[in-house]
What we know:
Elements: E1 7-10, H1 20-31, H2 39-45, H3 51-62, H4 68-89, H5 96-104, E2 109-112, H6 117-126, E3 138-140, H7 153-162, E4 169-173, H8 176-185, E5 188-192, E6 206-208, H9 216-224
Parallel strand pairs: 1-2, 1-4, 2-3, 4-5, 5-6
Helix pairs in contact: 1-4, 4-6
Amino acid sequence: MTAKLKGVVFDMDGVIIESEHTHYSAICEAMGERMNQTYETFLTKCTGGDERFAMGRLAEFSGIEYDESLFQEWSKKKAVAYQRLVGESATAMPGAIELVCSVAEKFPIGLATGSRRSDVEAAFSTLAGGKLNGLFQSIVTSDDVAKTKPDPATYAKAAEGMGISPSACLAIDDSPNGVSSAKNAGMKVLGITAIHNASSLKDANWYLHSLEEVSLRDLINLFECVS
């Protein structure tokens, strides 16, 4: 029997919003001049998890010793900087707003992100004039799980919030950790290669460079062609 698609779960950063540089700039402000790693290092080695993962890696590469109190200080500064920066320059990924709105007319949709809830709220309040607010039946952030991506909890909880089995959900993610999280939660995965190449997303069922290349009908057909 052919599997039927019943819901779609989107990652946020790099899938819906072009925000990786915004996160990097906010982290630079929060961590200060001792953080000396490039944006390229951030993209290739520090994305796909939560901000604790990203800042921990950047601190390690920069030779910065830190404890929990310093991380919490960075986190607070980063949240303030991100809200300001995303308000100044929030940009949707190509085709993302159109696809999200199209899917939401047919299926429940979820968001599974390694960002904090405050970052999601800041992004959605600005992006496309707030058009995405209220569309998602389930939003799971790094604040909502004990372990973030690549642990499956983020995607599993998003499906639970939609009231749908993970096996009936399609996940759309752009990072190796995100793809692993969704696959291990039991979902089929469309990998977006705008930042990471297809070889890095080898566990995904399919790959596309941009959401401009896919329609709702394409998602349904892709899902149903893989048993």
